[in-house]
Structures are given as structure tokens and as C-alpha cells.
Design goal:
The protein is mainly α and 579 residues long. It is 39% helix and 4% strand. The strands form two sheets. Strands 3-4-5 form a three-stranded mixed β-sheet, with no helix packed on it. A two-stranded antiparallel ribbon has the order 1-2.
């Protein structure tokens, strides 16, 4: 049994031991009797293994579907602007926090000082992670650092603490974790480097959240992100993964079954031996599960392979698919099907399957061999923290602080570009000639670093595509209006036969009226206006009924607190404009 299977076995054993029938039971981990537990290193390890249930699962790769990164057959309520206040649920759950605080109340009785330090660090890390997730969703929160008795009405009806107080407590927990966690490389368990990666993320998030709302004090958070990021860049065993295989490293980073230990700081493990899988292959290849696709606007954002802007080409929105994807940033052909694509382990060239993607841009990130196409059979480990994100955090935080240098770019983002043989970002050139296409998406970016900030945002969206960052980025940048921009896909000038692989063979036929009688095996047939809709410019319009979407700047950056929670705790206040 390999190491990641051992990790899963420990977590499974823990749940069998302590979780009874329902992970949301009101007494899960704290059913353990403190008098007979928390005495040994094994006790501490067993208990904290239960915290790993907090890791996201499929949202790592399909979380972008609530944004303009991945479009499906049904638009999310976030994109449509139709979210409602739920009666219960809605993400306002506190079970994991109770488990963590119970551990922190009891664990110091263990006499193993080394174990106590490390697993105490694990608990502080997970409490920081818990509160950061809630902060991103709801804003300010009530802070609890100890278990609450069922009859403690004062604690149960506590009002929210300030956002600044919550962020300070998150960073305090992370500093404790960084100081006490083991500095041992481990792809599937929390360590010092995991805590540094989260601090890098938290500092950037809150710093830009406050800056783009014109609040003072944002610099402190950005500086915290810079410090944590720099520690990982300069003094950790991780580096940007490269194999020496030109333009292939990015694809290999995500379609390998086991997480790449060179770059991935922490991953969620999956195992064939333990029958624990996910469904990314099924999600991206079948016509019956959402039909996810990249948007035309994002495809346009990928630079040409020489570093020039694709959107500077005349009539860039009316190029054939083959011309559109030719000589582009190699990450485009490693994220969606383009001419020459074949499934892992096979050699047959495949066209995009328009039946499996509503935009025509079919996603291939994380996709492995066809044998794993059945639902919940995919085994690729999913990254939760990787150095690729950290170097992006570092460059952005420095740029927003106004302290970014060319040296900073060369030790961060330009490593990602080097991986795929793309030209470096030049700080002076970027700031001298800001990209108008990017500026139209983010019209609140100003100042001397406008150009390079836009380039960093381009790089971030491309590099972290399908890793569930887009919504949080939109929120912190106060860029909600990007979700109201037109959603479009592939260009087809009208009915006709189309070659999408470059082999001069027809792959797609778009027709009007009756389906052609003499159909060709292997060719895709779509009826215009029924199977496929085109706008007046010939671009696929996957949702013609939702072209007048709204985003409420005074409400939609936060989620509502459920009605029942407001009734149970009269001292809670609903988020603005959700009443």
C-alpha cells in the first residue's frame, strides 16, 4: 500500500471510530472521552486525521462553474444573479470548528512534546482554514476558540466580530502553525509549508479585498502574503515543476495519477485500491453531466506564443477554430482540445466534442485514460496548494504594494512562463502599454502598475484555471461586473461543414431544416437554432435566454446567512441587502 493509501486508511479508520452515522451529527469527535484519550502521539494523530474531511472534493475542478471560467448547460445562480436567502444550510455550518476547538482544549495533556507541538499546529492550521473559508463566503463572523456548552446562551447568541478581528485571528493561528508544524515535505499531510501557502493566500485575499474597497491598512495583509510567499520560494523544497519536455510540463502536472511532489505542496489523494475516486473524466467527456466549456473571452486572453496579444489581431473573434488556436500560449492546448489532441495513452487525434461542451472549447485539464471515464472512477490527485499559486500571489502582492521589480517577476511568474516556453513579462513594457482588452474587464485597476497588474491577472486566470480560484478573485478584486459580460463560444459563420482538427476532414456539420440523410460515421451533426445557437457574429451562444444578467455591487460579493440561523441567534445581522 502506498503512502497516500495509508493516509486515506487512517482517515477512514478515524471516521469509523468516532463519526457514527452522520458527519453532521451534533456530537462527532467530541464523543471521545477526554479522560481516556489525547494521551499519546497516536491519539493526537488519529483525532487530527478527522480534520482532513474538510478538504474540498469535486469543487477543486468544477468550482469555477459558478463563474465565467466554466460554462455548463445550466448557468449558476451566481452568474444569473438569482441567489436567494436559504432557510437552512447555505454554508453556515460549524461542526468542524467544534471538533477543532475540542481538540485544542484537550490535547496538551499528552506528554509527548514533539507530537503536541506538531498536532497543535495542525489544529491551528485547520481552524485558520475553516475561518478563512467562512470569511470569504460571509464576511465578518463570530469568533469561537473553545467548545460551546449547549446551555451557554451568551456564546450561542454572540454577534459577529469585526472582519479585521477575524483576519487577525486567522493570521495568528497560521503563525502558530508555521512555528510548530514539522518542516517535512509531505504531499498529503499538513506541514509548515502548507501553513505558509495558506498565509500567502489569506494575505493576498484580504489585502486586495480591502484595497479595492478603498479601505486603509490593506498593506499589512499584502506584506504578510509577500513574506510567506518569499519563504516558500526561497527556503522550501518546492520548485516549479519542469521535466525538460518542451511545452508538456503543465499538462503532466495535472493528468498524472499521483500528485507531483516537486511543485504540489498539498493534494487530496485518490486511490483505486480503496475505491476512492472522483468524476473529472466523466464531467468533461460525457454529454449528460453539465457539458462544461471554456468561454471565448478567456480563450481570447491567452497570448500568442511569441508573447504578443491575440486580441491585437484583426477580426480575432471571427477566426476559424484552427487559426484561432494556432501559435498560442501552450497552456491553451494543454487545457482544452485543440488540433493534435489525443487522450492520454492513445494516439488517435480527436476533435472537440460539441456534445460534451456547451461552448465548443472542451476541457482536458486533469483528464486521463479513457478507462477512467465512468462516473467517480478518476484517480488523479487534486492539488489544494501548489507553488504555482504561491509565485502568483507573491507577484500580485508586490505589484499592489507598488514594490514589484523585474527581479521579483523573474523569480515568480516568469518561472511559469518559462515552463511552457513563453516570453517573460517585462515590467517596463507591461506598464508602458497596458492591454486594453484586459483593462475593459477590470476597469478599476489604475496607477503606475496598471499594466503589470493586468498581466498578472491574465497569468493567474490561465495558470489556475479549473482550480477553483476565479470566484474568490472576482470578489477580492471587486470585479463582479465581469460575470455580466457576454458568454460565447466557438466561431461558425453559419451552416456548413467544418474541420476542427486540421486534417482536411469534416468533424462538425451545422445544418438547417432536416438532418442530412447521408450522414458520415464519426462526424458530429448539430441543427442550427435547436442543437446549437449562434449570435449575430457567428459565435456559439450557449444561453441566449440569459444575455441580460445582473450583478448587484452592493449585495452579491457575499452570501446570505440562512433565515433559521437569524432566528436562532437574534444578535446576528444579515449581510447587506439580503433581507
Amino acid at each position: 500500500m502506498n503512502f497516500k493509501n495509508i493516509i486515506y486508511s487512517l482517515i477512514t479508520a478515524f471516521c469509523l471510530y468516532s463519526c457514527s452515522d452522520d458527519l453532521l451529527d451534533t456530537q462527532p469527535l467530541s464523543e471521545i472521552t477526554a479522560e481516556t484519550f489525547f494521551n499519546t502521539s497516536s491519539d493526537l494523530q488519529l483525532y487530527t486525521n478527522g480534520f482532513y474531511r474538510m478538504w474540498p472534493s469535486t469543487s477543486i475542478y468544477n468550482g469555477d462553474a459558478i463563474t465565467d471560467n466554466i460554462i455548463q448547460t445550466e448557468l449558476s445562480d451566481e452568474i444569473r444573479g438569482t441567489r436567494l436567502v436559504p432557510s437552512t444550510g447555505g454554508g453556515w455550518d460549524w461542526e468542524y470548528l467544534k471538533d477543532i476547538n475540542f481538540f485544542l482544549q484537550e490535547y496538551e495533556k499528552c506528554e509527548d512534546e514533539a507530537a503536541k507541538a506538531h498536532y497543535g499546529g495542525v489544529a491551528h492550521f485547520f481552524r485558520a482554514r475553516f475561518y478563512f473559508d467562512k470569511l470569504q463566503r460571509f464576511g465578518s463572523l463570530p469568533w469561537y476558540d473553545k467548545p460551546i456548552a449547549p446551555d451557554d446562551i451568551e456564546a450561542l447568541t454572540k454577534p459577529r466580530d469585526s472582519r479585521a478581528f477575524i483576519v487577525a485571528k486567522i493570521l495568528e493561528d497560521l503563525d502558530y502553525a508555521i512555528e510548530h508544524l514539522k518542516a517535512e515535505k509531505n504531499t498529503y499531510e499538513v506541514n509548515k509549508y502548507t501553513a505558509l501557502a495558506l498565509k500567502s493566500r489569506v494575505g493576498l485575499y484580504e489585502g486586495t479585498f480591502q484595497k479595492y474597497r478603498e479601505n486603509s491598512g490593506y498593506e499589512t495583509y499584502l506584506e504578510a502574503s509577500v513574506a510567506a510567499s518569499l519563504e516558500l520560494i526561497d527556503n522550501s523544497p518546492y520548485q516549479i515543476y519542469t521535466t525538460g519536455t518542451p511545452n508538456m510540463d503543465y499538462l503532466e502536472l495535472f493528468n498524472a495519477h499521483d500528485a507531483n511532489e516537486t511543485e504540489v505542496i498539498l493534494a487530496r489523494a485518490y486511490s483505486e485500491d480503496l475505491s476512492i475516486g472522483h468524476n473529472v473524466n466523466y464531467y468533461t467527456t460525457t454529454s449528460s453531466y453539465g457539458r462544461p466549456g471554456m468561454t471565448k473571452a478567456l480563450v481570447n486572453s491567452y497570448l500568442n506564443s511569441d508573447g504578443s496579444r491575440f486580441t491585437d489581431i484583426q477580426n480575432y473573434n471571427k477566426l476559424s477554430f484552427i487559426e484561432e488556436v494556432k501559435n498560442r500560449d501552450p497552456r491553451l492546448s494543454q487545457t482544452i482540445r485543440t488540433p493534435g489532441y489525443s487522450r492520454k495513452g492513445q494516439s488517435t487525434s480527436l476533435a472537440p466534442n460539441l456534445g460534451a461542451t456547451v461552448t465548443g472549447y472542451q476541457i482536458i485539464k486533469y483528464v486521463t485514460e479513457p478507462v477512467y471515464d465512468t462516473n467517480n472512477q478518476s484517480l488523479t490527485d487534486l492539488p489544494i496548494y501548489r507553488l504555482g499559486e504561491v509565485v502568483l500571489n507573491y507577484a500580485e502582492a508586490k505589484a499592489e504594494l507598488g514594490t514589484l521589480t523585474q527581479i521579483d517577476l523573474d523569480k515568480s511568474i516568469n518561472l511559469l512562463r518559462k515552463r511552457v516556453n513563453m516570453p517573460n513579462i517585462n515590467l517596463e513594457v507591461a506598464n508602458t502599454t497596458p492591454d486594453s482588452y484586459m483593462a475593459n474587464q477590470y476597469n478599476n485597476v489604475t496607477g503606475v502598475n496598471k499594466g503589470v497588474i493586468l498581466e498578472i491577472r491574465r497569468e493567474r486566470r490561465i495558470e489556475l484555471y479549473m482550480e477553483d480560484f476565479r470566484w474568490d478573485d472576482i470578489v477580492r478584486w471587486k470585479a463582479g461586473q465581469t460575470l455580466t459580460q457576454p458568454i460565447r463560444g466557438l466561431y461558425f459563420p453559419g451552416p456548413g461543414s467544418y474541420d476542427l482538427t486540421g486534417d482536411n476532414e469534416t468533424n462538425v456539420v451545422i445544418y438547417e431544416g432536416d438532418r442530412p440523410e447521408n450522414t458520415i460515421s464519426g462526424v458530429q451533426y448539430y441543427k442550427l437554432g435547436s442543437d446549437i445557437s449562434l449570435d449575430s457574429n457567428g459565435l456559439i451562444d450557449p444561453h441566449p435566454d440569459y444575455n441580460n444578467r445582473q450583478f448587484n455591487e452592493n449585495k452579491d460579493y457575499l452570501y446570505p446567512i440562512p433565515r433559521l440561523e437569524l432566528q436562532l441567534n437574534p444578535n446576528l445581522e444579515q449581510n447587506p441587502n439580503w433581507n
